[in-house]
Amino acid sequence: MKKVSKDFTAPVKLWALLCVIVSSFFIADYRINGILSLIGLLYLAAQCKWRLLISFGLFYALLLLLLIGIRRYGIRTIIIPEFYIFLCWNLLPVMLIGWDVITTPPGEIAAFLSRIGMPVSVILGLLVIFRFIPVMKAEVKKLRLSMKTKGLLDPARILTHPLETGEYVLIPLLLRCIQIADQLAVSAVVRGIQCPVKRSSYYGKKIRTFDYIAVIVWSTTMAAVIIVRSLA
């Protein structure tokens, strides 16, 4: 029996990201921003992305507690400046939907952009941007494990040789970035990116009622935020 995907289609995810960015630009009240973040969490729950939902949910709860403590009880944070707390709170809706887009298979996004006639150079640029964070996260994790195995993450060594530690981190990452760029170029050529004819794709998700509901919710949310802002 074929398993039905709970993920929204690429155009719906891109539209949700656009709506969140526009809404965040017009939001002036931290409470409205909190509501927008809750809608984002429900958006993840609708796709059954429980791991991502738990991570961002805990982060949301922590920011909310800190925000309440600062605004209502005058608590002053020592380790983390208050500016960064407010900045994370304001950017949380964009981070929620943005990470969902970033973790979407690149083929789905490329197939949709190709269907609407987007230039190949633009598609490649966007795909590189969307895949940069997950790829670099995986590379940093591998590098950390390698350094830990070699004993290069010892706190005493880091404090006594900070420049060497920086070299051990930056040089492998820079070399890996160059390798990934070469692999991406070769992969694009092999897949016929330079071919002038119209290309097909095996990513053929159709827009369902499930997706239309998400589009309506995000469009209504964006319109409501703009109206509230204009009346304020």
Write the layout of secondary structure elements.
Elements: H1 10-26, H2 30-46, H3 50-73, H4 82-102, H5 106-115, H6 120-149, H7 155-160, H8 162-190, H9 209-231
Overall body shape: flat
Counting DSSP E segments of at least 2 residues, the number of strands comes to: 0
Main sheet characteristics: none
Nearest-integer average pLDDT: 83
Can you write the helix and strand succession as a string?
HHHHHHHHH
- Compute the separation of the termini in Å: 53 Å
Beta-strand percent range: under 5%
Helix content: over 70%
Global structural class: mainly alpha
Total count of helical runs of at least 4 residues: 9
Cα radius of gyration in angstroms: 21 Å
Low-confidence stretches: none
In short:
The chain has 232 residues and is mainly α. Helices cover 76% and strands 0% of the residues. The mean pLDDT is 83.
Describe this structure in words.
- The chain is mostly helical and 232 residues long.
- 76% of the residues lie in helices and 0% in strands.
- The chain is built from nine helices and no strands.
- The chain has helices at residues 10-26, 30-46, 50-73, 82-102, 106-115, 120-149, 155-160, 162-190, 209-231.
- Helix 1 (10-26) packs antiparallel against helix 4 (82-102), helix 1 packs parallel to helix 9 (209-231) and helix 2 (30-46) runs antiparallel to helix 3 (50-73).
- It is flat, with a radius of gyration of 21 Å.
- The model has no long low-confidence stretch (mean pLDDT 83).
Give structural attributes.
232 residues, mainly alpha, 9 helices
